[in-house]
Amino acid sequence: MLGPVIHIELGKDNPITLRFQLRDTPLAQYWLKKWHCSRPYPLDDPARFYGFNSVIEEVARAEQEIKQCIDTINAFKPIIERQFTTVHDQDCLNYMHNIFEKYHGLLDQQHHDFWQQAPESVRRALSRLNVSVHRCETAVAPPQPRMVCTWYGLPKTDTLSIAEMQQYGELAPAFGTLCFCYVEIGKTLEDLTHDLDNYIADDAFKPFNFYSVDFVVRFVDTDPATIKNKLQTMEKYYQQHWQFFNDRKLSNFNDPRLLPLRFPFADLIPDRPNSLLLELIRQNQYVNKVYIQ
Prior knowledge:
Layout: E1 5-10, E2 16-22, H1 26-37, E3 49-50, H2 55-76, H3 90-104, H4 113-117, H5 120-139, E4 146-149, E5 158-159, H6 162-168, E6 177-180, H7 189-195, E7 210-211, E8 215-218, H8 224-240, H9 242-246, E9 264-268, H10 274-283, E10 287-292
Antiparallel strand pairs: 1-2, 1-10, 2-9, 3-4, 4-8, 5-7, 6-8, 6-9
Helix pairs in contact: 2-5, 3-5, 7-8
């Protein structure tokens, strides 16, 4: 017997509804339990869509958002000394991400004086600086249409075991698969390999560990050759920095905490061609509500 269906309503004027069938796996049950705990918490950013517009539009939006964050933060206290110029400057983006990590703090560790003293609007801007950095990185990458839903303030206290990661993790989920969102504050091996980050602190390397109700839906089918190339690049970086990872008891590249695994728990129920669906989502990049029936 099929289980509950997740409904995601998109758009304001002529909304569309996407439906996702929960899988019969422990991961689906974990998500369902977190869903029932999320009711008091608001949806963080209903317009968190990536890769549905033209490159020019994506770049313009990314630059506008990150500049707004920087202006809001520096108006309170000028902690960002470096000027943002372009989404193509990865070193600058790494610097901005480090500002976020330093002054926001790691997962549920908001102890910095800046965070403690900042008004809510500045805290929000600092939190969004992280999202804005990733939006900039996405804007110049090959198109990977996706949407992300996060719930503001919901504590992240639950973890997946290594065995569960090994059993249920997927390198290339199919078009429209609902997966757990990476909720750590830090970077995975995949991120480090891509970013070549010279600013990240030792404790900001964070493999996938915690999960929450937060999820991501990727509307793309991944080419096996792309995954193969990614793994080869990541393994090269890993070998070059083997001592760093070995010190953290990650002495095997095939450890599921290092691989670029996604953790799916529901699948899109198709009711229209993928090309039409992508166009409809492009026209409705706003999450009205998420509910289960």
